[in-house]
Amino acid sequence: MGRFLRRRLLAVVPLLLLVTSMVFSLILLLPGDPAVALVGMEDASEEKLAAIRERMGLNRPLVVQYVSWLARLAHGDLGVSLRTGQPVTEAIRERAPITLGLALTATGFGLLAGVPLAIVAARRRGGLVDAAASGLAAFGVAVPNFWLGSMLVLVLALHLRWLPATGYVSPFESAGDAFRHMLLPTLTLGASAVAEVTRQLRSSLGEVLAADYVKTARAKGLAEGRVVAKHALRPALIPVITVAGLTISRLVSNTVVVESIFALPGLGRLNLESVLNRDFPMLQGAVLVTVLAVIAVNVLSDLLYGLVDPRIRYG
Amino acid sequence: MAETRLALRRFVRRRMALTGTVYLGLLILAALLAPVIAPYEPLKQDLVHMLAGPSLAHPLGTDDLGRDVLTRLLYGARLSLGAACLAVAIATVAGVPIGLVAGYLGGAIDDALMRVIDALQAFPALILAMAIAAALGPGLFNVMVAVGVVYTPRFARLVRGQVLSLREEPFVESARAAGASHARVLARHVLPNVVAPVVVQISIGVAFALLAETALSFLGVGIKPPEPSWGTDVGRGYRFMRLAPWLVFMPGTAIFLTALAFNLMGDGIRDAFDPRLSREA
User: Fold this and answer.
1) What is this structure's pTM?
2) Residues of chain A contacting residue B130, judged by C-beta atoms under 8 Å apart
3) A7, A44, A273, B258: most buried by Cβ count inside 10 Å?
4) What is the DSSP string of A126-143?
5) ipTM of the complex
């Protein structure tokens, strides 16, 4: 396991270098003078622009700029917002926990709803639950989540008045209120996760349940629940874990939309706000932290994959 | 040819895929004929009939400026579908050659190209598209370039995987042995064999691009009002949801059904060309 761990972690280094250089290069895509975009105003005087170029090192060679950006990054310095003057790291520290909480609850919902649904569907192929699971999977992949979120708000918040439509309450202020406020965002964000987990697990569980060793376990007289839990679920989970990285990446992507609909002040919304405000230091910081989080989850899911399936560790 | 005919016959037998394809055919026809069949002008305001519910005069109601929702839906299909197709065209033109070269040449070139593809794939799609669109500046074309860049890795990976196995096939080796150049082998022997999976990916890719474009427009990063686009209209309708829920419901349903239809068509094409790959198999 040690060698596998080392190999996997080493592979991340070039990825990190490439990803950081891509985030850094976002500024290069800016049309015209980056100093103008960075200062956020078109009518800045030439002296002011020259001062910015000097201060931000924009007149130095690109490689030098990148290395010094990396060096500041290593010290946790991502610059300050062009709009508010707030340090980027501070803004990210405030907002990341909200997105993390939302992503975790949505993933939890995806697993809690998806795994039992997939088990029932796989055990009764062609049955009613199976048809419902297939329908749900097709729905989850094609439904625009801004539309799903709007419909949930319309029915559950505006018409039935069961839940608040928007807003955020910290769980440290009031756990009950926080739960009620997170329910609709979690349902909206988790819908595609439920679909993905159900689709993957249903198909892999179907294959495993037809395998000889599962038939043997049944022939020995083991109860069906035990056959599924002890013998079938673990190998069937492997394909689910392999796509976990992709599912999480899609989930993180969708936090931008969900946080906007439900007015949650998270990292997704920070990404959007900095795009709309053309606040580049903030945008770079928010994108970077988001992509680093996704890479971390991917590495974790790879390690988990190795833990569940020894063939990967020694392959 | 015989294989294509057989695949076509298998495709027609899949009811869901056929339904999706017929829906898309009708939608494209309606979008093309929008100036003829739409009951009103897409930008024409009628402040007397603001936020009116569905009626005979306005079958899908009107929006906050009294514009006919059905008309905007028909015109919006042109922009939303066109934009999604453009993004996938960009992704195909960029991704397929990368996959071909990486898979066929292998070695250091493959390693280098694939690391870049890995890095691009590490970014959550919508966030990368937003960041690129922000950097390139507003405008429909820039947004589509952004969505195209985000989807390029899917094509590159798919084609590379196919080419890796094709490279070892006897017909490719014999073409090389007969003295054919790399370019000729790629164009004449390898490329025709990756067409089917690429077509499947295009179909599923349009669904992705449509969802991405409408999400970006909903968020205010994509197509700008007053142009009729499904995503922009949902975003605008969201503000009036309590008074006029149809403003969100109608264009949202159109996006959902269209993305579903592209997915079903893609699944159908895949099953038709390679029944072994069927999800149900």
Assistant:
1) 0.88
2) 256, 271-272, 275
3) B258
4) TSHHHHHHHHHHHHHHHS
5) 0.85
